[in-house]
Amino acid sequence: MGAAWAVAFARAGHAVALFDSSSEQIHKHALPHAHRTLDLLSRAGFLEEGTGRVLARIDVAGSIADAVAEADYVQESVREDVAIKRDVFSEIAAHARPDTVLASSTSAIRGSEFLGHISHPERALVAHPVNPPSLIPLVEICATNRTHADVVSRTKDFLTEIGMTPVVVRKEIDGFLLNRLQYTLVAEALHLVGEGYCSAEDIDLIITDGLAPRWASIGPFAVAHLNSSGGFLGFVDQLGPMMKRIGQDARTDYPWDMDLARTIHAALAERIPVSDIPEHQDRRDAQILAARKIRRPAKLQQR
Ligand SMILES: NC(=O)c1ccc[n+]([C@@H]2O[C@H](COP(=O)([O-])OP(=O)(O)OC[C@H]3O[C@@H](n4cnc5c(N)ncnc54)[C@H](O)[C@@H]3O)[C@@H](O)[C@H]2O)c1
Which residue's alpha carbon is nearest to atom 17 within ligand 1? Predict the structure, then answer.
């Protein structure tokens, strides 16, 4: 996640200081990953300059203190563990300027659980990306009860300036917005597969060949708005009772177990052997960029 963020900042012209407690992680994984992503962005026409020039803006720092001392913006991306995040933020806050924005990539932990104790907690918040932020623009910004409103708007402006699409989560909630939507759908998918209504492959097809082509251009509320000559209210007037019934019937509490997880894994591994995952990740990333290219107005395609 840190490497993907580094690409997102550097390709927009910013100098980046990358730090990881494991230097092997930096040299064996993060930097090669950044290089591959930049090559992919370049081939897809998303880079205005050569890969080498963008890569040259990413420096490896020797410590958290070195990484953050001169920074205007810090993006923490250590593993999803509240104790580690608390410690890392104590150290970042001790060395960063008091007006530097301190953001966390956490997927689902409320910022209040690990940002309230630092010095100047008003400068800290969550900026939750979608993997990988080098290719997917959405970021969820979520303040804690200590974050200043000005820091939220500075973060929003900065992320917009580098070509991301920030959405502000107005109140702290477990899992923010995207993962609540994603895992609600996945929970019902587990129920449907677990109770024999369809296969795991069918679920993937329903998304890729059914819902996603629509959702890639307009969201589910806009889909409903366009599906009725009376707009969203017309849609709800006709299909509202069905929407409610199915929503209430969905088994988001379905008690799926490891046997079901193993069955789904086996079906997936037949199509995509685990050893082939890196190759399929590359294909997935190229497809994400191809889809973004079709959607974007020409003048925005360079980011
Ligand atoms: N992977 C995803 O799909 C995804 C999506 C959105 C958000 N996130 C969030 O981003 C964060 C990072 O996720 P990831 O998948 O990149 O995790 P990861 O485990 O792959 O990487 C975490 C990195 O942090 C380093 N690290 C651990 N402790 C450290 C410390 N004290 N100081 C400096 N570096 C330290 C590790 O060496 C490792 O390289 C998590 O909070 C995760 O929830 C992940």
Answer: 79
Three-state DSSP state, 221: helix
CA distances 215 to 30, 206, 211, 228, Å, are: 31, 12, 6, 17
Q: CA-CA distance, 28 to 13, in Å (whole number)?
A: 24
For residue 84, give the ligand 1 atom closest to its CA.
31
Per-residue DSSP letters for 262-300? HHHHHHHHHHS-GGGHHHHHHHHHHHHHHHHHHHS-GGG
Substitution candidate for ligand 1 out of 20, 37, 164 with most atoms within 8 A of CB: 20
Q: Is the pLDDT of residue 53 over 60?
A: yes
What are the structural domains, with CATH classification, of the chain? 2-169 (3.40.50.720), 178-271 (1.10.1040.10)
Confidence tier at 171 by pLDDT (50, 70, 90): very high
Cα-based angle 76, 79, 84 (whole degrees, multiple of 5): 80
* Global pTM exceeds 0.85: yes
Work out which ligand 1 atom sits closest to the CA atom of 29: 39
Name the residue with the closest Cα to ligand 1, atom 39.
Answer: 25
> Each residue of 248-275: pLDDT tens digit?
999 999 999 999 999 999 999 999 999 9
pLDDT > 80? residue 143? yes
CA of 270 to the centre of ligand 1 (A): 29
Contact 115, 125 (CB under 8 A): yes
Q: What is the 244 CA–ligand 1 centroid distance (Å)?
A: 38
Q: What SS3 state is found at 117?
A: coil
Beta strand 138-143 with 124-129 is: antiparallel
Minimum-distance ligand 1 atom for the alpha carbon of 106: 41
The pLDDT of residue 296 is: 57
The residues lining ligand 1, judged by C-beta closer than 6 Å to any ligand atom, are: 1, 20-22, 25, 77-80, 84, 88, 105-107, 128-129, 131
